[in-house]
Amino acid sequence: MYWVIFERIGVFVMTAYTGKQLFDSFLSRIKPDRVYSAEQVADILKVEKADIVQIIHKRELKARKIKKKYCILGENLINYLTSINHK
Question: Which fold has domain 2-85?
């Protein structure tokens, strides 16, 4: 019985550690003063562009639309990722 509990705690700790490593790798790739497109952000975060557009429409991620394309400041992306990491 104790082994099952110990194993589950180990899996949780490893998942949390891996998540932290993944989060840190995202942040290290993002330059605060650079402007990214929704496609570039989706590529960095390994998600679909539609997911990024949805987050922008919910106003969780600040972006500007210029000539039918979303422009996302790296600083805004870092702030968004930091805010969701602390939830």
Answer: Arc Repressor Mutant, subunit A (1.10.10)
